[in-house]
Amino acid sequence: MPDSTRESDAILTAAKRSLVTQRDGGTHRPASSIGRGSAELKAAALLKRLRNMAIAVLGVLLAFSIGGWIIGGLGFWGVMLGFIAILAAVGGFSMFPKVKVPKRADLKKGDAKAMVARTELWLEAQRPALPPPAVQIVDQLGAQLDALGLQLATIDQSDPAVNEVRELVGEYIPETIDNYRKIPAHLRGEQHAGKTADQRLTESLSKISGEVDRVTRRLAEGALDDLAIKARYLDYRFGGAEALEDKSQ
CB atoms < 10 A from the CB of 228, how many? Predict the structure, then answer.
């Protein structure tokens, strides 16, 4: 019971802090992307749009240049038509391809690192429907998923830890939020079995955040051990800081 009271107090404190922040003009506003993975997906889509626009403009210029050469000049209206065609091409291709929010069923597809990036993008789309304390944890998850993605890029995809990550990131996170969103908005603030849906969501996401951090640390243990061994070897081989100072004198 005391633990439950402390968790509820923490949730209320986070909610009050968020409301004060919004009232004061939003001194803490989440970035457009919660993590590097989702930002890279958006950047890739933007580059494709710029490439398509450039190809379309070159195509229009080439077509009108050939047409003008064939008929012996475009004239004023030909130039205006070409200008309109360029504007239409730029306007049309500036909208495509759009960054599609992954469906929940697609989150676990592909390699684990790509799954993490897709989950970040999916989480961003869920933020408007979440209570302020949960949004803060989602933003925190973005940074944690970035760190987890870096670890996943260095390990074998057949490693048992990858399956654990797939379950945690590809199932638990979206399932928790989907279950919350199934509850009508006007019922999410009502008490049910001692807590509101908003409180349960925030607590669940907080636990998932802690688990993501634990998995990331466990995956990094090998690299940390290697670094410690290398540092001890260098101390043995070249001496510590005091030995280096003696050599420089």
Answer: 10
Q: Which two tokens stand for residue 78?
A: 């030909």
- pTM across the whole model: 0.66
pLDDT tens for the chain, 249 residues long, are 444 444 444 444 444 444 333 333 333 334 478 888 888 888 888 888 888 888 888 988 898 888 888 887 778 888 888 888 888 888 888 777 777 888 888 888 888 888 888 999 999 999 999 999 999 999 999 999 998 988 888 888 777 888 888 889 999 999 999 999 999 999 999 999 899 999 999 999 999 999 999 988 888 887 777 788 888 878 888 875 554 455 555
168, amino acid identity: L
Side-chain-side CA neighbours of residue 52 (13 Å): 17
Q: What residues contact 213, with CB distance under 8 A and at least 6 apart?
A: 144
Measured distance CA(163)–CA(95) in Å, rounded: 37
The domain ranges of the chain are: 38-93, 104-238
- Counted residue by residue, the chain has a size of 249
Instruction: Name, in order, each residue with C-beta under 8 angstroms of 38's C-beta and a sequence gap of 6 or more.
Output: 117, 120, 121, 123, 124, 142
Match 């199934």 to its residue by tokens: 182
Cross-strand partners of 192: 195
Q: Which residues pair with 196 in a beta bridge?
A: 191
The pair of structure tokens assigned to 119 is 């989950």
Q: Which residues pair with 191 in a beta bridge?
A: 196
Two tokens, residue 200:
């349960």
